[in-house]
Design brief:
The complex is a heterodimer of chains A (246) and B (180). With 246 residues, chain A is an alpha+beta fold. In chain A, the strands form three sheets. Chain A has a five-stranded mixed sheet, with no helix packed on it. A three-stranded antiparallel sheet of chain A has the order 6-7-10, with no helix packed on it. The longest helix of chain A has 17 residues. Chain A is 19% helix and 15% strand. Chain A starts with 5 loop residues before the first strand and ends in a 16-residue tail after the last helix. By secondary structure, chain B is an alpha/beta fold. In chain B, the strands form two sheets. In chain B, strands 2-1-3-5-7 form a five-stranded parallel sheet, sandwiched between helices. Chain B is elongated and about 60 Å long. The chains are: A alpha+beta (246), B alpha/beta (180).
Chain lengths: 246, 180
C-alpha cells in the first residue's frame, strides 16, 4: 500500500495530493510562502516571482511548480530571502508607492510582504512613472501608479464576475493595466464594488470611494502582526479588516 | 580617562522636520543619548558648520541644489550616514511633484494661485535652484543605514541608535518597521 506522497519544506514534511502545487500544499499545511500575484481562489499566474523557492537546488515559483514526492524545498533561507527582497524593491521603484499618502497603507499586501522580507529601503533608482488616476466611477477609483500587474483584478473580473472589465496592454516595461472600454474609463463599465475584482487588489490600486482612513494607525491589519500570521487582506472578511465580501 | 563622545550631526533636507520631532520624542532618553553622543551641526544645536562626525542622520530627500551640497558635505564628513524617514528613503510626499513638470508646479503656485497681486515666480539668487525632480538620497551618495517611517517612531529611533552605538547588528522588531 502506497503512502501519501510528501516533500520537505525547510525541513518540515509536507503531504500533498497529486496535481497540487508546492504553494497549495504548503498553504494546506499552514506554512506561509510570501506571494503577491497568487490567490488560492484563482488559477496561478506565476508572474510576480515573489513565491520563488529552491526546489532540489533550483529556483522555481512555488505557485506554479507541481509538488513531487521527495522534493527538497527551501524557502526561508538567506539566498531566497535576498532575491525576494530584490523583487519587492524593484516593484517599489517601478511604480509610485507613496505609503504615507496611500489609503491602503497598513492593510496593503505589497507593503506587508515587503515588511516580511525585511525591506528597509527600495535600494534601486526610482522610475517615478507618470500614470493616471481614474476617478470616473461613482464608487471606486483606480490609481494606476500603484499597479504591480498581478492581474488578479483581470482574472477576477473575467473568471468570477463575467465582466471582463480589466486587461493588461503592452509588453515588457510598457505593460500596463487598462480598462476595457473605448474611453478607457472605469465609469463607462458596469464595474461594481461588490465585484470580486474590487476585492482582490494586493495594493492600493483599486479603492472604494466615500470612506477612507477609518482605522487608526496602530490598529490596521498589518500594524501589529506580520502577514504570515494575519493572512492575505483579500482572503479576510471585511469584518476582520480584510476585503472579502461574505 | 574620560571616554570621548561620538559626534552626531543631523539635518533636514526636503523633509517636514517630522523625523526630527520624532527624535525629540525620545523624551527622557535624550539624557541617556547625551551621555554617549555630542551633537554637532543639527537643528537641535543650531550650529551652521559641519565638523568631522562619526554619525550623520539625514531627514528628507533632495529637491534643490543646496540639498545636494549639504548631502555631499555630510557624506564627506560623516563616517556613517543614515537615511531617516520616507522622504530620505524614497523621496516621500515631496516626490509626488515628480508627477508634474517643475514649470507647471511653479506656475500653479505663483502665477495661477487665487488672489495673487503682481504674480511672478521667485527668482532671487539667494533661493536655491530647484531640481526638476525630487530624489531619495541613496541615488546621490552611499547610505549606510536606512530607517523607514513617516516618521520613524521614537521607539524605532531608540532601538536603532542603541544597537548602533553598542556595535550590534540592527534588528528592529516587526512593530517598529513601517513605511508610513
Amino acid at each position: 500500500m502506497s503512502e501519501e506522497p510528501r516533500f520537505t519544506l525547510d525541513g518540515r514534511t509536507v503531504p500533498f495530493q497529486d496535481g497540487q502545487t508546492i504553494m497549495a500544499a504548503a498553504l494546506a499545511a499552514g506554512i506561509y510562502i510570501p506571494h503577491l500575484c497568487f490567490n488560492p481562489e484563482f488559477t496561478p499566474h506565476g508572474s510576480c516571482r515573489v513565491c520563488l523557492v529552491k526546489v532540489n537546488g533550483r529556483m522555481q515559483a512555488s505557485c506554479t511548480t507541481p509538488a513531487a514526492a521527495g522534493q527538497v524545498v527551501q524557502s526561508e533561507i538567506d539566498e531566497v530571502r535576498e532575491i525576494r527582497r530584490g523583487l519587492l524593491q524593484m516593484l517599489f521603484v517601478e511604480g509610485n508607492h507613496v505609503c504615507p499618502a496611500c489609503e491602503k497603507s497598513g492593510a496593503c499586501q505589497l507593503q506587508a510582504v515587503a515588511y516580511y522580507v525585511g525591506m528597509l529601503a527600495p535600494h534601486y533608482t526610482h522610475f517615478y512613472p507618470r500614470r493616471p488616476v481614474d476617478a470616473s466611477h461613482p464608487d471606486a477609483l483606480i490609481d494606476f501608479n500603484r499597479c504591480i500587474l498581478c492581474e488578479l483584478c483581470v482574472r477576477a473580473s473575467r473568471e468570477v464576475d463575467g465582466k471582463n472589465v480589466f486587461a493588461v496592454q503592452g509588453r515588457g516595461i510598457k505593460a500596463h493595466l487598462v480598462v476595457n472600454t473605448p474611453s478607457g474609463k472605469l465609469g463607462a463599465t458596469d464595474f461594481s464594488l461588490s465585484d470580486k475584482a474590487a476585492q482582490v487588489c494586493p495594493t492600493g490600486t483599486i479603492l472604494s470611494k466615500h470612506s477612507g482612513y477609518e482605522i487608526p494607525i496602530g490598529q490596521r491589519l498589518y500594524d501589529r502582526k506580520p502577514i504570515n500570521v494575519v493572512g492575505d487582506v483579500a482572503a479576510l472578511a471585511v469584518s476582520k479588516g480584510g476585503r472579502r465580501h461574505d | 580617562m574620560i571616554e570621548s563622545k561620538l559626534k552626531v550631526a543631523t539635518c533636514s533636507l526636503c523633509g517636514c522636520f517630522g523625523c526630527h520631532m520624532s527624535l525629540l520624542d525620545l523624551d527622557e532618553r535624550l539624557f541617556d543619548l547625551a551621555e554617549k553622543v555630542e551633537f554637532d551641526r543639527s537643528p537641535l544645536t543650531d550650529l551652521k558648520e559641519l565638523g568631522e562626525c562619526d554619525i550623520g542622520i539625514i531627514e528628507g530627500g533632495i529637491a534643490n541644489v543646496e540639498n545636494v551640497h549639504t548631502l555631499l558635505e555630510f557624506r564627506a564628513r560623516c563616517k556613517i550616514l543614515i537615511a531617516m524617514g520616507a522622504c530620505a528613503i524614497s523621496g516621500g510626499i515631496p516626490a509626488m511633484r515628480n508627477h508634474y513638470e517643475l514649470k507647471d508646479c511653479l506656475e500653479e503656485s505663483y502665477t495661477r494661485g487665487i488672489g495673487l497681486v503682481d504674480a511672478q515666480i521667485p527668482n532671487d539668487p539667494e533661493i536655491p535652484l530647484l531640481l526638476d525632480q525630487v530624489h531619495p538620497i541613496h541615488e546621490v551618495v552611499k547610505i549606510d543605514y536606512f530607517l523607514p517611517g513617516c516618521p520613524p517612531s521614537a521607539d524605532t529611533i531608540w532601538t536603532f541608535v542603541t544597537q548602533l552605538l553598542a556595535g550590534q547588528p540592527i534588528a528592529l522588531p516587526y512593530t517598529q518597521i513601517h513605511y508610513d
